[in-house]
Amino acid sequence: MPLQEIPVPGFNRRKFLATSALAGAGLVFASGTRALNAQSTKGGSAGGKLNVAVIGCGSQGAVLLESLVEIIKDTRRPIGVRLAAVCDIWDFRRTQTTRRLAGNGVEGVNGYADIDDMLAKEKDLDAVFVATPDFWHAPHTNQCLKAGIHVYCEKMMSNTIDGARSMVRAMKETGKLLQIGHQRRSNPNYRFAVEKLIREKKILGRITNANAQWNRAVKADDVMPKKYRLSPDILKKYGYDDAHQFMNWRWFKKYSGGPISDLGAHQIDIFNWVFGRPKSVIAAGGVDYYKSHEWYDNVMCIFAYDTPEGVSRAYYQVLTTTSSGGGYFENFMGDQGSLKLSEQPQHIKAYAEPNFKEMWGKYVDEMLLKRESAPAAKASSAVVDSRESAAPDAFDLNIGIGSKKIHQFHVENFLKSIKGEDKLTCDAAHAFEAEASIYRVNEAVSAEKMLHYTDADFAV
User: Fold this and answer.
1) pTM of this prediction?
2) What ranges in 147-297 are assigned the alpha helix state H?
């Protein structure tokens, strides 16, 4: 059962999530829950539980912890996981996280302020989840890999392309698994759409264009409460100029790549999954609204791809001053139809071009698609333009993924791969192919011209 469905008397989820955003642990807790985090033997290969730790208990760490708690609680299809430790430099966030985990039955989780201390004391770790700010990804990941520990690292791989390259090299040199957090790669909807519908069945025909977006409304900067403020010495030790930059690190160039890497990385990765490497990118953007930030708050870019059928182009926008435009999605358009994908299931839809709607009937017969269960009202039959196309027929994907959290599939893929029961869907080498494309978007904005990719951009 998903965490949000756990019956908790008097529980107000909206109020809780508002509080936990500050605490950095978006978990739901029930008092008196039985202990689920039993001691384990080292190593999945021996049949024991995997000992894992999470580094970084902020918003993304909370998302990963929520999936881990679901996995630990699942006795029907047990993977065998024990959460041994969490690590975060902010004692307030670290303490809140361990308390909430214990309240949800995941007891005995040790809390650490420093990764060196954690690795020195937690001798039996099989895997670590890295959810620290981008500029710490490469140092933390490489340190764990070289300590003989498998790693799941959030995207972007690093705030620099050289940092990302070092992670691929460390993965290859140590022979340890390194999963990158492009979770759509493990999502059954995406895998079915890309691998079955687009590649095998070619239901879209020749794909000529794609577009994607992720828009977010205006949001005030996060503020660290005075009562729980980190000392300047601790902030300096871990690379932060001040508390404001610690709380809002995504907006500053020394810590991240800005919204195009924070949000766009997921969706540009899907472009590359379908098309391969881009040959060029042109982009525009700027610090249009948030004058206290360094990174561009709005970015629009166009990639060009050489495919066996010809050139395809993909447009992407990330806007942080409006949430309008229908959520976040990726839309692929071909001469036979189009396919809209999203982690928000209500946006997933396939559309047959009028001349191919009869052909698409065979995909319904093959149980790949379903005719739209609640079709939208048809547009007026009045002809506005003699060249106007008829409205396309809509279809739903004939696949159900249940009620799992969207990150849980990717976390499970990582854990099962450690045990030899699966293969990583997005290791560092594959992730680097997409992320190398993304690093150049900010360069294109700054240069105000089209940039062309070379083999050197993708070389490790």
Assistant:
1) 0.90
2) 161-174, 188-191, 232-237, 243-247, 259-262, 264-275
